[in-house]
């Protein structure tokens, strides 16, 4: 019975039936199913399948985006019932945003979606995010990764400023910094002391996973 | 008689429907506008304004009223004050895709960040090419501090060409620096207003939002009498509806809101209805500029603009391929340029550009110039007169024998009737081509680039103009606490 419900959640996740997923989650909560299992074998398992299909060119961004939204909403329903251990199961927690003076956000949002699909917790600050706002959010969420996006030549320098502020606030060695966007390059990333640079969402995920692995081993 | 061949994507009824939908959208969803002055202007003109949310709801009557004030024709002048671009009716002009963060090295083919020397060479190439009618500040030099790179490229382009320039800013303090440079060239702010030599691009942020930077530029242009292009650019499926009609409504609403703002700031302000809609690739997330849907939407909004009688701009001729001699580069550029020309878009920007508007290429610029020539030829249509019907020639040759080659008629008409692109287009017999090392279009382009750069010398600025520009560069460099003597030249 329980198995069935969780399976249905997984299947509806794969077919991107957002409303159905949320209805089923409510049912699972009413039936007092184990919330952790619902997350792991229902939501996460479903979104993984979609992620794999995407990699094979069988699923597309609108499907992933809807699934990632559903994931967020589903987690909101389940969160009060989850124990600490489950949230720790996430690969890591990421603060993401487009830097100050810049309002390009599609690339940043796609990176955020892919991180969610791949098991990260994501705090999206949106666009025009100042170094102060980044730093405050890092402090608040105890995130272990910060991801900054800049699409304009003139706004790239805000990444440097953010890193400098993290240093000043004594947060720099607690967090990994990754950056991306059209004018950014590996060389620029090196020059401002970022830990990683990605040309697209695939690389963003790879780098975040590397960060997560290093975190574990240290 | 000559028929001007043309393209239509919307029926009269469609145009009416889209017009009404976009006005209704401006009225009930409104525009978010990050600028107090603009919101005040709109409030005074009768819009209801939510100051807290920076949102103005624009009634249809206001749009209709302001539409009547906008000029239907805008002339751009060359650096030496000659009329150069006539943006009106179905006249077509071309300029390069602008603000590339990368460049393909013209010798090695490597994709790298552009340098000052590249900006200079690129401007000189554009200056030399006859089917490219205007400059754009096409590449961003990465060897000057990024904070001043937007205006420094204008400084470089102005020195290396007499053609008018399409440009834009990346930061709030750039507009004034750039306006001052243009005033130095024109002679005064009044002369610049009378004979503008540059256009600024200002992009609203779909859906229905004017960012601080872009609305600032829009108002500044209106005040200075400098033409401004509103570049609405919904990304279908990301910042705009996935459907073409839906994104067209959004595009039209944003463009009209820009027009209203400019006219309220300064009645009669020169505004060009432009855009750069893109189709989001749902596999890679990239902004597809070469996609047929992006091109269709551009032609469709141009039809809307023409319905209003406004000058038009479009981003066409770009390709998402990575290499200039990839056939994708050719077919995407050709589709955009030919259709845009058939549509009669007045200012078509985009030649040279590859890879989602990120990478300029000398080779593509040159190859695209051929397409521009073809497109211009196409728009001239087929001239049907007594002489072109060639009745005499036809009778002479068919009855007396011989051929048309030696006829006066041929001599008189071959240059006028035929576009002659030169050796860039391969029309040699097979063996001759083989003997020359079987050059492909990239190799042919590279050879010509080298020879153009060697032979073409742009007209220099007067020493007074040069000095004036240098002073402005000095000013903004110091204002940003940088050392002017360390700038590359
Ligand atoms: C769409 C677009 C806009 C839209 C943005 C809408 C939105 N909500 O995001 C609008 C219309 C608002 C816009 C405005 C402007 N734009 Co614009 N825009 C673009 C365009 C065409 C596509 C950007 C995009 O969405 N791409 C699709 C996404 C999926 O790709 P992406 O952003 O590159 O992200 C991917 C990777 O870079 C990477 N990535 C991104 N972030 C991160 C972060 C991390 C941590 C990692 C690891 C990876 C990563 O992964 C992403 C997914 O694969 C680009 C051209 C280009 N090729 O970038 C110009 C471009 C960026 N814009 C440009 C300019 C000049 C402007 C304006 C200044 C123009 C003006 N004067 O009006 C204004 C700026 C306003 C402002 N204050 O910010 C220039 C920048 C030139 C430069 N050298 O700086 C570009 C390059 C176009 C050009 N050649 O002129 N723009």
Lateral arrangement of strands in the main beta sheet of chain A = 2-1-3-4-5
- Percent in helix of chain B: 40-55%
Radius of gyration of chain B (Å): 23 Å
Q: How much strand content do the residues of chain A show?
A: 5-15%
**How far apart are the termini of chain A?**
42 Å
* Backbone shape of chain B: globular
Q: Work out the strand percent of chain B.
A: 5-15%
* Pair with the biggest interface: A-B, 21 and 25 residues
The overall number of domains of chain B is 1
Uncertain regions spanning at least 5 consecutive residues of chain B = none
Helices of chain B, by number, come to 17
Oligomer: heterodimer
Order of SSEs of chain A: HHHHHEHEHEHEHEH
Which fold does the CATH topology of chain B refer to?
TIM Barrel
Mean pLDDT of chain A: 91
Could you name the CATH topology of the largest domain in chain A?
A: Rossmann fold
Please explain how this structure is put together.
The complex is a heterodimer of chains A (218) and B (489). By secondary structure, chain A is an alpha/beta fold. Chain A has 2 domains: 2-86, Methionine synthase domain (Methyltransferase, Methionine Synthase (B12-binding Domains), Chain A, domain 1); 90-217, Cobalamin-binding domain (Rossmann fold, 3-Layer(aba) Sandwich), CATH 3.40.50.280. Chain A is 60% helix and 10% strand. Chain A has 10 helices and 5 strands; from the N terminus they run H-H-H-H-H-E-H-E-H-E-H-E-H-E-H. Chain A has helices at 2-14, 18-30, 35-55, 61-78, 84-89, 106-117, 131-141, 157-168, 186-192, 201-217, and strands spanning 93-98, 121-124, 145-149, 176-180, 196-197. Chain A has a 5-stranded parallel beta sheet, with helices on both faces. In chain A, helix 1 runs antiparallel to helix 2 (18-30), helix 3 (35-55) runs antiparallel to helix 4 (61-78) and helix 6 crosses helix 10 (201-217). Chain A is elongated and about 55 Å long. Chain A starts with a helix and ends with a helix. With 489 residues, chain B is α/β, with parallel strands linked by helices. Chain B has a single domain (1-382, 421-489), classed as Trimethylamine methyltransferase-like (TIM Barrel). Chain B contains 17 helices and 21 strands. Chain B has helices spanning 12-28, 36-44, 60-67, 116-128, 149-159, 174-186, 189-194, 212-224, 244-265, 292-308, 327-343, 362-380, 391-400, 408-417, 430-435, 441-455, 463-479; strands at 31-33, 48-50, 55-57, 74-77, 83-87, 93-96, 102-104, 111-112, 135-136, 165-167, 198-202, 209-210, 228-232, 235-236, 271-275, 278-280, 287-288, 313-315, 347-351, 353-354, 359-361. A 5-stranded parallel beta sheet of chain B has the order 9-10-11-13-15. A 4-stranded mixed beta sheet of chain B has the order 2-3-1-12. In chain B, strand 20 and strand 21 form a beta hairpin. Chain B is globular. The N and C termini of chain B lie far apart (53 Å). The A-B interface holds A 54, 57, 60-62, 101, 103, 106-107, 110, 152-157, 182-183, 185, 200-201 and B 101, 113, 140, 142, 146-147, 149-150, 170-171, 205, 211, 213, 235, 237-239, 242, 280, 282-285, 287, 358. Cobalamin sits between chains A (102-108, 110-111, 147-149, 151-153, 178-183, 198, 200-201, 204) and B (98-101, 140, 168-170, 201-203, 205, 211, 213-214, 233, 235, 239, 278, 285-287, 356-358).
